[in-house]
Amino acid sequence: MGLIIDLSAIRANWKALADMAPTARPGAVVKADAYGLGAVRVAPALYQAGARDFFVALASEGRAIRPHLPQDARIFVLSGHMEGEDLAGLIPLLNSPAQFFRDRALRPRGPFGIQLDSGMNRLGFEPGEWAAVRTEALAAAPQLVMSHLACADEPDHPANAAQLDAFRTMTTGVTAPLSLAATGGTLLGADFHFDLVRLGVGMYGGLPFAKAQPVVTLGLKVIQTRDVQPGESVGYGYSWTASRPSRVATVAAGYADGLARALARGGDLTLWAGDRACPVIGRISMDLITVDVTDLPDIPPALEILNAHQGVDALAERSGTIGYEILTSLGQRYPRTYL
Ligand SMILES: *Cc1c(COP(=O)(O)O)cnc(C)c1O
């Protein structure tokens, strides 16, 4: 019942991806509270498995996990050095000339990395900006020089080769460790691995790592069941009406718990009682979902929405999104169990 997070599966996925890039250090991306699964639990579990390089989006996320990791763990901050930020114990990935000069003025001996833009046009030094500060930046010995791929989940996309080429051009002669690949880039092959890979969604059981072990099980507690007669309706807007004598279970989760209203729009969303599929009926409310359990011999204490039958990507597809968004939306209201 509740959200069950299998830390050993996260470790196994991290290791499986690390083994695909044997020449690179396998980093672990734990931004957005480890994709919603709890960075304070996930990061130490990955440290135990051997991870030493962690990535967060914000300095505040880095400060939250710093006390939970030994000193030899490096925590890189992808947003770099934002004005007024406390970066003690963290390594900002500087994204622009402004960040570079701010950082060097305020923490001249502080460790830093560099993020280059190889084509995604989201974060990082543009080639011209990099050319202007490159000599000075490299003389200060960055811990990492990295860039990020925009289309790595589409192996045939021409941007992959173009970004690889741009990254190679911008890093010619650079002796600092280099990094280009996240999960998708790791799967693209050795050309993309460089010195460090930044493993994210694949560790958490999501595509594009199709061979990932599932990490999350989510069981929703049954609060109440009732009999509904033919012609009676269920939920907001009366959008479902019984056509036979029915038994309806109401479970304790809704769109405020990351189960988007759009998941039920196709009318064929299912929850699971073990191996038996039970149709969701009516609309998803903020805190509640209603399920047709007429065909179940007994009503279990909880019905599952994420399990071996329906993973994060299968669920995501129903609402037109991606597994990343399902994970990061799960929210704080579920009782959590870590395996
Ligand atoms: C989120 C992110 C990653 C991890 O990406 P996944 O696709 O989850 O593996 C790596 N690097 C950067 C810069 C990111 O923003």
From TrEMBL:
Modified residues (N6-(pyridoxal phosphate)lysine): 31
Protein residues bound to substrate: 122, 286
Enzyme class: isomerase
Pathway info: Amino-acid biosynthesis; D-alanine biosynthesis; D-alanine from L-alanine: step 1/1
Active site: 31 (proton acceptor), 236 (proton acceptor)
EC numbers: 5.1.1.1
Gene designation per UniProt: alr
Function summary: Catalyzes the interconversion of L-alanine and D-alanine. May also act on other amino acids.
Coiled-coil residues: none
Keywords: Isomerase, Pyridoxal phosphate
Co-factor(s): pyridoxal 5'-phosphate
GO biological process: D-alanine biosynthetic process
UniProt source species: Paracoccus shanxieyensis
Residues of the Alanine racemase C-terminal domain: 215-339
Any GO CC annotation of this UniProt entry: cytosol
Record protein name field: Alanine racemase
Swiss-Prot/TrEMBL catalytic activity: L-alanine = D-alanine
Phylogenetic classification of the source organism: Bacteria, Pseudomonadati, Pseudomonadota, Alphaproteobacteria, Rhodobacterales
A GO MF label: pyridoxal phosphate binding
Family the entry assigns: Belongs to the alanine racemase family.
